[in-house]
From TrEMBL:
Pfam families: HTH_1 (PF00126), LysR_substrate (PF03466). Keywords: DNA-binding, Transcription, Transcription regulation. Belongs to the LysR transcriptional regulatory family. This is LysR family transcriptional regulator. CDD domains: PBP2_GcdR_TrpI_HvrB_AmpR_like. Residues 9-66 form the HTH lysR-type domain. It comes from the Bacteria. The lineage of its organism: Bacteria, Pseudomonadati, Pseudomonadota, Alphaproteobacteria, Rhodobacterales. The keyword Transferase does not apply.
Length: 298
């Protein structure tokens, strides 16, 4: 094969370009690479001259890749990841970092009890969990992968379904005894409910054939993790995704009085840049996590 037909771009310039695109700043790229800002600008100009088109839009604060720049950014990020991992493997030192941006409840119920197993299986990959409600920019390198709630469609990103959004009431045995007997779904109307104003309660009652009570204006805890803590403290019944409830039910801490589970169209997904699907850390984490959640439904 004649490699001169498709020559490589100047690799030092690609390295500079990837850093500037990821950080959105020539000056920050210069700091990361221990270069002067003038040297960064020179390498970017060199790459743009070779490409025959601009790769960055100059903004009042920082820079952003053009459409052509975004294409190169995805490919450059994947190529550099593979190169870093190949070099680490050659040196026998691993050293790859996997930054996981995740939802609070998923981090607490799924990742925290299990992530150590992934680390043991992949000692060359360092994991860092970032519990952050903000939707991070994966294409810009703000995290390696993300756990997101949504419908599974994000431009430029691949998404694997992890857990369908579904809900069922849970309460402590003590609360069940105090307000019991709980034999029919309508019996839950006399039990205090955590986040009683959540529309998911009305959805569940209607699915059970029970006219839901009028929604009262109450405070919202915002995450299932906090709702569970309130339920465990005996403040009321909570609605919880069955996949999150498995351990609590098995331990007897909470009781699921009815098998009825309601679903909505917002589910939990593993998300990562499509162009980096085969990056070693992403591929390893994806394979492990999909296997872990495969049998979580109660």
């Amino acid at each position: 094969m004649d490699r001169s037909v498709n020559p490589l771009p100047p690799l030092p310039a690609v390295r500079v370009f990837e850093a500037a695109a990821r950080l959105g700043s020539f000056s920050r790229a210069a700091e990361e690479l221990a270069m002067t800002q003038a040297a960064v600008s020179y390498q970017i100009k060199l790459l743009e001259d070779r490409a025959g088109r601009p790769l960055f839009k100059r903004l009042p604060r920082g820079v952003a890749p053009t459409a052509a720049g975004k294409v190169l950014q995805r490919q450059a990020s994947e190529a550099l990841d593979l190169l870093r991992q190949g070099w680490a493997d050659l040196r026998g030192s691993g050293g790859e970092e996997l930054v996981i941006s995740t939802l609070t409840s998923f981090a607490a119920f799924i990742l925290a009890p299990r992530l150590g197993q992934f680390q043991v299986a992949h000692p060359g990959i360092t994991t860092r969990v970032d519990v952050n409600p903000r939707v991070v920019d994966l294409l810009a390198g703000e995290a390696t992968v993300a756990i997101r709630a949504g419908r599974g469609s994000w431009p430029g990103l691949a998404a694997d379904l992890l857990i369908r959004s579904s809900y069922t009431p849970l309460l402590t045995p003590a609360l069940m005894e105090t307000h019991g007997p709980i034999r029919e779904p309508a019996d839950l109307l006399r039990v205090p409910r955590v986040d009683a104003g959540d529309p998911a309660w009305a959805m569940w009652f209607r699915a059970a054939g029970v006219e839901p009570p009028k929604q009262a204006d109450q405070h919202s805890l915002g995450t299932q993790m906090l709702e569970v803590q309130a339920a465990l403290a005996g403040q009321g019944a909570c609605l919880l995704t069955p996949a999150y409830a498995r351990g609590l039910i098995a331990s007897g801490a909470l009781v699921q009085p009815f098998d009825l589970v309601t679903e909505d169209d917002i589910s939990v997904w593993l998300v990562y840049p499509e162009a980096r699907r085969d990056a070693p850390a992403i591929a390893a984490f994806r394979s492990w996590l999909l296997a872990e959640v495969a049998d979580l439904e109660v």
